[in-house]
Each structure stands twice: as structure tokens, then as C-alpha cells.
Design brief:
This protein has six helices and seven strands. The protein is α/β, with parallel strands linked by helices and about 190 residues long. The chain has a seven-stranded mixed sheet with strand order 2-3-4-1-5-7-6, sandwiched between helices. A hairpin with a 2-residue loop joins strand 3 and strand 4. It starts with a strand and ends with a helix.
Length: about 190
Amino acid sequence: MKKYLIIGLGNIGPEYMHTRHNIGFDVVDAFVLKHGGFFMPDRLAFKTEVKWKGHLFVCIKPTTFMNLSGKAFKYWLDKTTVPLEQTFTIVDDLALPIEVIRLRAAGSSAGHNGLKDIQLTIGTDQYPKLRFGIGNNYPKGMQAEFVLSKWLPNEQPIVRQKIDKCVEIIEQFAAVGIEKTMNMANSYKL
């Protein structure tokens, strides 16, 4: 059975639930729920394992807070012995419009603090990342408030559709590999 490590980035605590910055948690929650799993506290993360079509997915939501995500990523990468190319990190992206998602086999942090910490901790940016566009409709100087804000009522249907698409993308990543999945993911736009 081929094993994958699925990492949804976010911050723990009720004040961060369902905020733009926690979309990684929301996507992994939806994936796990679809496949009948549930998260339990574990070392440096909430963790569960789910199976789908001969694949085992170790799913984590780091409890280290976003800016220290690398510690949990490295611990679970080492513990599960999953090859780096079989990891899948889901993260919010301020530079992408809300209608867009982007999947890359590798690439820079693009200024995202969680990805920066992962790169610093594991010494490379050569691992798959799914970037969930959150838009950038905020006044100058209000970036932190924007990323930590909840979705607006008119954005929620788009977000729900994109979460469902991201769950499908995780499945396709395991079923057909990164290249074919990137073609599907990167052509998606509401």
C-alpha cells in the first residue's frame, strides 16, 4: 500500500477556525471526513490515517502554529518515512484570486511563513504544494487582519466548491501522480 503524508497548514484555537489562513486545516478536514476518519491529538499535530483505493494517507494538522510548521512537517516526514515527493501540503495564498487553486511539484515559499519554516527546517523547497487562493481585497497595512478573517458570506459558496475540488485533487495526486494532477488542478477556476 503506497503511503502519503498530507499536511494542512493552519493555526490551532477556536479564534482561527475557518479563517482564510486556516484553509489548509479545512481542506484536510474535508478529505478526512469524506474517507471516514477523525483526528486525534498526537505529537506536534492532530493526526489520522485514512485509506482510499489501495493508498494510505497519513493526515496531519500541525499544532505548532503556522510560523513553526516545519517542526511538525519534519517530525511526521521522518516518522512515516514517506518520500518527500509523496507529501502534499495545503496552504492559503494571498497572491491568488479567490477563484483559483495552484498545484506545484516544488517551488518557493512565495513569502508564506508556514512554507518558509518548512523549507528552512527540511532544507529544500522540492515538495508538492497546493495553494488555495484567498484573494487580497484588503486596505493597505491590513494583511494580517485579512488573512486571519473569516470568509465573507458571498465567498462561502466559492470556498465550499474549492474545498471539494481540493479533496478530489488529493485523491488524484495518489491515483495518477503529480504531473497529471497539476494539469487538472491548475486549469480549475470558478
